[in-house]
Write a structure and sequence with these properties.
Layout: E1 5-7, H1 9-13, E2 21-24, H2 28-33, E3 40-41, H3 47-59, H4 62-85, E4 94-97, H5 103-115, E5 120-122, H6 125-137, E6 144-149, H7 156-165, E7 169-171, H8 173-177, H9 195-206, E8 214-218, E9 223-224, E10 227-228, H10 231-238, E11 241-246, H11 249-259, H12 261-265, H13 267-274, H14 278-281, H15 283-295, H16 298-321, E12 329-332, H17 338-348
Parallel strand pairs: 1-5, 2-3, 2-4, 4-5, 6-8, 6-11, 7-8, 11-12
Antiparallel strand pairs: 9-10
Helix pairs in contact: 3-4, 6-9, 7-17, 11-16, 13-15
Amino acid sequence: MKYPEILSFDDALRQLDSFDAIIDARSPAEYALDHLPGAINAPVLDDEQRIRVGTMYKQVNSFEAKKVGAALVAKNIAAHIEALWLDKPREWRPLIYCWRGGNRSGSMAHILAKIGWPVVQLDGGYKAFRAHVNAALEQPPALNFKVICGTTGSGKSRLLEVLHANGAQVLDLEQLAAHRGSVLGHLPSHPQPSQKAFESAIWNTLRRFDPALPVFVESESKKVGNLRVPAALMEAMRASDCIALTLSRANRVRLLMADYAHFTASPASLNEQLEFLVPLHGRDKIKRWQAMAVEGAIPALVEELLADHYDPAYLRSIDRNFVRYGQALPLELEDIDAAAFQAAARILAP
């Protein structure tokens, strides 16, 4: 075999989980937007260098730009070898890609192959991967979804976590989107990924599922925070069997107080989010809720938000959007402790 070996994405996909490393040779900004699952970023040109070389291409000429670019690329690849790969054995087999599978990944793959490693270069680069993800997500997944439905605070996300920990197949869209899926769902310490990265994470999760086993998922809206759930996936979820999870109002308030403790610690952040509800509830009601937050009356505020906002919105939408909800399997949680969620998980996935 002559190295670097050049593989199409379809060929690389069949062995994607067997590479010893997946190396993204693009700039940090490109990598941050989206990348192949599990890839590390080892840029041959950083963001500033990429702009510098690109500007030379346009304002001077390609020959001068290539000279400067080659010197930078050589220095950067040398630094990566010293910092990351000097301890790798001869049989270490990385997959390397860039934007289109051209000069940037080609330069790195050539040097690593000359060292003696069985390097694979991704033909078509990230663009080929992205095209595959787009095509895959346009098709309804051939999976048996079990949709966990329930009012806000009923424990849907916690139940998914327990099911996953117990070995069940779980698609946790809120976890992938770093958002809890409501107007108050923003996680202050976890910014949402890009739309492309969200879709890549969904694709990477779906491809690992066994079609013979159920996949548990929460009854999400079309958007989770600022991110859109792929339409074909949403259609499949909305046509699937449902589980009607219920929990007492008092326990729902307890659960939400625990899950949204950051708002208790920062009433100003809570009040900022409550502003988005003004068109639905009017300025007077929102001002009263904001005053409750400042005064520390969080449990009473949560109770009112459930009664006046979340529960009516849920009841208006669930039957309309999830066509099998009328035949949903009822599942009642007795408490919000670990034992209660384990008991519920055993009913769903013995």
